[in-house]
Amino acid sequence: MKYAVLGSGAMGLRLGVLLQEAGFDVDFVDTWEKQVETIRSQRGVYVSRDGQHKRLVPVNVYYPEEYNGQADVLIVFTKQYMLADLLERCAHFFNDKQYALTCMNGMGHIEKLNQYFPSDRVIGGTAMIGTVLNQAGDVDFIGQKGAGSVNLANQTEQPDEMTHQIISDFKTAGLNPTLTDNFTGTLMAKVVFNSVVNTLCTMFKVRMGEFIQAPTTRALSVQLIDEAYDVCERAGIKLLTSRQEEWQQVVTVSQTGNPLHFPSMYQDLSNGRETEVDYINGYIYDLGKKYNYEASTHNFLRNLVHLTEFTDKFDVNGFINQVLEDDKASEQKAAAVSQ
Ligand SMILES: NC(=O)C1=CN([C@@H]2O[C@H](COP(=O)(O)OP(=O)(O)OC[C@H]3O[C@@H](n4cnc5c(N)ncnc54)[C@H](OP(=O)(O)O)[C@@H]3O)[C@@H](O)[C@H]2O)C=CC1
Ligand SMILES: CC(C)(CO)C(=O)C(=O)O
């Protein structure tokens, strides 16, 4: 089976390199010029594990416009707000046999994929795998070899032969896949997880292992999980686990799965990029509104993250200088009037 990764950032490289090293044919496509040029000039991507044992892995990387490989499966991994542009630039090599598989965080991506791929060729899922792009061409796989897992579900909820082949390939690559027959519940379970872990770790700039140790983490998490579950119940979405199990997953994944990981939302913030909070906490809030339910904690958190996006970029010195200049101008004006 031939794979092409569309969006060869942190997670695209993680899945793609693991598949390639398991013997599968993988191409990488990306729109980020610095990434493509760096990988080409250094003849591969630098891969480390938990910051150790850095090695160069040769990969084939292309801009969308120059790619024409006819992959059987397209693995789509980009930020939610970058997806529409990426798909538009790749559309010329889509064919009517290809499957699109994605484990992106948040919600909103499936509708965009459906503009190019019918539901019987869309496999959605989630990845409990932490990965950090240190810089262009340099990726850090968080966790030991074999760490992490993915949940996959067909949009039709009816697995076919191709799906079983993909699951088998993912097993060979050590991605620990589980196939479910609950599409929306699978995706939303991760949205709930990220609405707690990504958002709170990002706000307070901590790693998952630090976050889970705080005495107040349980109370904060349970409140968010409860609100999200209230929304899903009203929307008729059956989640994969109970509320209690979801909290347990927050504990296990933070404590033992990815203690050293700064969630991807934090990585966005620290690189001065927009976060995906509108597709995570914002999605939960907006879905609740459709059923006359106010998930107000999620909305509050969404707005706090936007405030952090703003303040992190804020030019404090420029602001102080402007205030001082304004004060001086008013004093001069007042002095002129009184003369
Ligand atoms: N990382 C993780 O651990 C996980 C991520 N996910 C999800 O997977 C999807 C893809 O995320 P992910 O792989 O993390 O994102 P990427 O690493 O692909 O980052 C997305 C884009 O951000 C820009 N960028 C990335 N790193 C830098 C940098 N160091 N400096 C400047 N620009 C940079 C690039 O585009 P440009 O320059 O055009 O802005 C890049 O294409 C998301 O939905 C995410 O939530 C899911 C599970 C885990
Ligand atoms: C690795 C994990 C699961 C942490 O929440 C994630 O989804 C992310 O970093 O975005």
From TrEMBL:
Q: What is its EC number?
A: 1.1.1.169
Q: What class of enzyme is it?
A: oxidoreductase
Keywords attached to this entry? NADP, Oxidoreductase, Pantothenate biosynthesis
Extract one GO cellular component term from the record: cytoplasm
Q: Which GO terms describe its molecular function?
A: 2-dehydropantoate 2-reductase activity; NADP binding
Q: Where is the Ketopantoate reductase N-terminal domain?
A: 3-144
In this chain the Ketopantoate reductase C-terminal domain maps to 182-307
Q: Which reaction does it catalyse?
A: (R)-pantoate + NADP(+) = 2-dehydropantoate + NADPH + H(+)
* Pathway assigned to this chain's UniProt record: Cofactor biosynthesis; (R)-pantothenate biosynthesis; (R)-pantoate from 3-methyl-2-oxobutanoate: step 2/2
GO aspect biological process, one term: pantothenate biosynthetic process
InterPro entries referenced in this protein's UniProt entry, alphabetically? 6-PGluconate_DH-like_C_sf, 6PGD_dom2, ApbA, Ketopantoate_reductase, KPA_reductase, KPR_N, NAD(P)-bd_dom_sf
Q: Which family does it belong to?
A: Belongs to the ketopantoate reductase family.
- PANTHER family, from UniProt? 2-DEHYDROPANTOATE 2-REDUCTASE, 2-DEHYDROPANTOATE 2-REDUCTASE-RELATED
The record describes the protein's role as: Catalyzes the NADPH-dependent reduction of ketopantoate into pantoic acid.
Name listed for the protein in its UniProt record: 2-dehydropantoate 2-reductase
Say which species the protein is native to: Weissella jogaejeotgali
